[in-house]
Amino acid sequence: MNGFLESLFKLQANGTNVGTEVLAGCTTFITMVYIIFVNPQMMAASGMDQGASFVGTCLAAAIACFVMGLYANWPVGMAPGMGLNAFFTYTVVGEMGYSWQIALGAVFLAGIIFVVMSVTRLRRWMLDSISLNLRIAMGAGVGLFIGFIGLKSGGIIIPNEATYLSLGDFTQPQTLLAGLSFLSIAVLSIRRVPGAIIIGILGITSIAILMDLVQFNGLVAPPPSLAPILMQLDIIGAFDVAMISVIIAFLFVNLFDTAGTLLGVANRAGLIDEQGNANNLDRALKADSSSSVLGAFLGCPPVTSYVESSAGVEAGGRTGLTAVVVGSLFLLAIFFSPLAVIVPAYATAGALIYVAILMLSGMEALDWSDMTEILPALVTIIIIPLSFSIANGIALGFITYVAVKFFTGKHADITLGAWFLAIIFLAKLTFL
Q: What DSSP state is assigned to residue 94?
């Protein structure tokens, strides 16, 4: 068996062994397994069956990890992306009024474009066409978006007729537990406890059970049927002019997040050669992009690489065997559906808020010395959470970028890609 794994993953050549890779896979899984609780809740809010969504989340993550491990030989865990699931539910379905089937169609189309970009030079052209500051801003804006949803679902921030928003009532046990969820996750993470997020979620869920706020129905059960969401995407319905900005939002956030995550993990894992190129990066990008297409058929928002994979790399993971172990554990998780159903929204709220804060850390790389760069970036960051739409934030960010650069005489900084996207977004906002 060891000989087969050696020939498949080149363990010795990468300075690792089976035991180390298994440990690394378990470490990565523990750090990202929270998504099997968070994503089904998000998808249920869009009208999808929560049990089916739980199974779809586990299957999409498992298959994506297998593809990443066996095809690219990278120690990267994959699952439906945080932020894009919120955009899917609360913006595309909730605000824009599209069905979740059409939203899945948009995910599919964005995935197809991502695949095409991954196998051609379009990916490099697109990355070079978009200002680094705008790319950073997208990630930070998505972080604030996720955090806002966490504050809302936990009752920490509530509607107010006079001020739009106000602080929630901490005399309510649900709100108090949401705050405790965040604090426990933050403290455990700072103390470098493995699996801090999942420990926090399950800890608050246990308290809720003891307080008789939720009903415990066991841990293990046969997997719910996937039928309610399997192959239910409406691709034709997604061919709507108004969906252009949605597809672009799915594409860009996935593209930039994936590129940043993969390069970051590659550096930690020593997958960078002497010329600064990442080994098998093209294969890793193809694995990531194709997984988004597959995820759409399983009823999931875009599937993407998880930065939590760096935890597994720190534990010694160097090859695709780490990712295969992660995928195997996601398959095993399918049998724990009763646990996923009883986890309340206020238990996962802390995880959303914590992940959001981590995503804001990229803002330190913004170029604060150039107002033509920082202003469009800040517009993007602010508009995404306040408009409750990633697409709107990206749109106004690009329009502001081109306008500010053009009217301040910095025409040379505006790439053809930036011009094209700004015109598309302006037309969408003014005519559609």
A: I
Rounded to an integer, the average pLDDT of 95-104 is 95
Strand partners of residue 79: 304
Taking only the tens place, the pLDDT of each residue in 214-271 is 888 888 899 999 999 999 999 999 998 889 999 999 998 888 888 888 888 888 777 7
Q: Report CA torsion sign: 236, 425, 126, 366.
A: negative
Give residue for tokens 């700004």.
Answer: 422
How far apart are the C-alpha atoms of 425 and 383, rounded to whole Å?
14
Q: Rounded distance, CA 322 to CA 16, Å?
A: 11
Q: Is 382 exposed, middle or buried (0-12, 13-18, 19+ CB in 10 A)?
A: middle
Report which residue type is found at 148: F
> What angle (nearest 5°) sits at the alpha carbon of residue 33, between those of residues 28 and 37?
170
Q: How far apart are CA 430 and CA 242, in angstroms?
A: 11
Which residues fall within 8 angstroms of residue 410, CB to CB, at 6 or more apart? 372
pLDDT digits (tens, 9 = 90+) for 394-431: 999 999 999 999 999 998 899 988 898 899 889 888 87
Radius of gyration of the chain (CA): 21
Q: Which amino acid is at 10?
A: K
For 138, the 3-state DSSP assignment is: helix
Quote the CA–CA distance of 139 and 390 in Å, as a whole number: 10
